[in-house]
Automatic annotation (TrEMBL):
Keywords of this entry: Hydrolase, Protease
Signal sequence annotation: none
Matching InterPro entries: GAG-pre-integrase_dom, Integrase_cat-core, PolX-like_BBD, Retrotran_Ty1/copia-like, RNaseH-like_sf, RNaseH_sf
Taxonomy of the source species: Eukaryota, Viridiplantae, Streptophyta, Embryophyta, Tracheophyta
Protein name: Integrase catalytic domain-containing protein
Residues in coiled coil: none
Superkingdom of origin: Eukaryota
Molecular function (Gene Ontology), one example: peptidase activity
Record domain Integrase catalytic: where: 188-284
Pfam family, one: Pol_BBD
GO terms, biological process: DNA integration; proteolysis
Length: 289
């Protein structure tokens, strides 16, 4: 800071600037916004943020009634409420620079695509980029997405849900009709756990009538159905990350689950260079949305 630097106040007086630095604001939503070239003015007892500067850096501020909502690239970041003639952001803390942050002055191509792709890992994003499905991007070594970290934290063991899905047989009928009509192939085997919804007489009769061998895993051994268990966990992680990023309640879980599944069908898995969509449809998917 140049000696004698000051800022002009509303009453036409000047206040001395003692330093310039970088501050990370952590919103209650978990998002972190880094402010650069922040001036330290001890004589001002409020931490002031310029709304016009935020908008120049790509953020969007929407004022409604006594609330302000802040977003970037269409994704929710944080909010604030009117207090004493100003809008006070709802912040949880200041955090150090080692944490991942949303930078207001740098257009991070990785962050732009990470959220729309339901928070898939950056390795998959790199493969999509090499397949020319998304633009090339670079990431800072060691950077992490806050929403991804939170969403992948498992809960303590808990009782299974009391309410069961009552329509697995109907879903199997729909899936069987689509597969056999679109791919001209027959379903020969079906593997499931030992859930009660797969043990009904109607379910067994349907499999027998259509020559489907129903394989059931041993009791109390979810690892025997590892592919399905891992798929469920992956979908759950993506859904939690999406809801956390958007600040949405659990009421949106169904829509988030469908979106996550649609995205996973359009990205390659570990063992294949083609996406499930391309294997099924015969052409590369479009991620232009």
């Amino acid at each position: 800071v140049a000696r004698g630097s000051t800022v002009l106040l509303g009453n036409r007086s000047h206040a001395s600037v003692h330093g310039v630095g970088t501050v990370d604001m952590k919103f209650t939503s978990g998002k972190i916004v880094q402010l650069k070239n922040v001036q330290h003015v001890p004589s001002i007892d409020r931490n002031l943020v310029s709304g016009s500067r935020l908008t120049r850096d790509g953020f969007k501020l929407v004022f409604e009634s006594n609330k302000v909502v802040m977003s970037k690239h269409g994704y929710f970041i944080g909010k604030g409420y009117e207090c004493g003639g100003l809008f006070r952001f709802s912040l949880s803390d200041f955090c150090n620079k080692s944490m991942n942050h949303i930078c207001g002055s740098v257009d991070d191509e990785a962050n732009v695509w990470h959220s729309p792709l339901c928070h898939i890992n950056f390795g998959l994003m790199s493969r999509l980029s090499s397949m020319c499905l998304i633009p090339k991007f670079s990431i800072v070594k060691g950077s992490k997405c806050h929403s991804c970290v939170q969403s992948k934290q498992p809960r303590k063991p808990h009782k299974s849900a009391e309410e069961r899905n009552l329509a697995p047989l109907e879903l199997l009928k729909i899936y069987k009709a689509e597969v056999e009509n679109q791919l001209d192939r027959k379903i020969k085997r079906l593997r499931s756990d030992r859930g009660g919804e797969f043990f009904s007489n109607e379910f067994d009769l349907f499999c027998v009538e259509h020559g489907i061998i129903h394989e059931r895993t041993p009791p109390y051994s979810p690892e025997s159905n590892g592919i399905a268990e891992r798929k469920n966990r992956t979908l759950t992680d993506l859904v939690n990350a999406m809801l956390d990023t958007a600040g949405l309640p659990k009421a949106w879980l169904g829509e988030a689950l469908l979106t996550s599944n649609q995205v996973l069908n359009r990205v390659p898995n570990r063992n294949k260079d083609k996406t499930p969509y391309e294997i099924w449809i015969g052409r590369k998917p479009s991620l232009s949305y």
